[in-house]
Amino acid sequence: EIELANRGGSTHVPPNQLAHGPWGELLVRTDRVVKMWRGGRIESYRALVIGGNLRGCGGFGIGKAFEPEDAVEIACRMA
User: Fold this and answer.
1) Residue 7: helix, strand or coil by DSSP?
2) Which residues lie closer than 8 Å to 19 by C-beta, 6 or more apart?
3) What is the rounded distance in angstroms from the CA atom of residue 37 to the CA atom of residue 48?
4) What are phi and psi of 71, to 5 degrees?
5) Cα(38)–Cα(18) distance, integer angstroms
6) CA–CA dist 60, 1 (Å, integer)
7) Where are the beta strands (DSSP E) in the chain?
8) CA atoms of 58 and 13, how far apart (whole Å)
9) Residues 17-37: pLDDT tens digits?
């Protein structure tokens, strides 16, 4: 991430936003995944997010984590 100086402090702006303008993100799907292990069941979550700038530049990201909010955050960073 690139830091830009602001009057009140510093603001983090992702490099792709500097190159391509403001981005929008859309959460497509969140799934709960259960894995059977020796000690029992392990639950995790998977999220699919698409993002783009509505001018021909876009991408998708898949995030996996033990909490759904964390999975969405990781997927947003990957997109």
Assistant:
1) coil
2) none
3) 25
4) -65, -40
5) 47
6) 19
7) 2-6, 9-13, 24-37, 40-52, 58-65
8) 17
9) 666 667 788 888 999 999 998
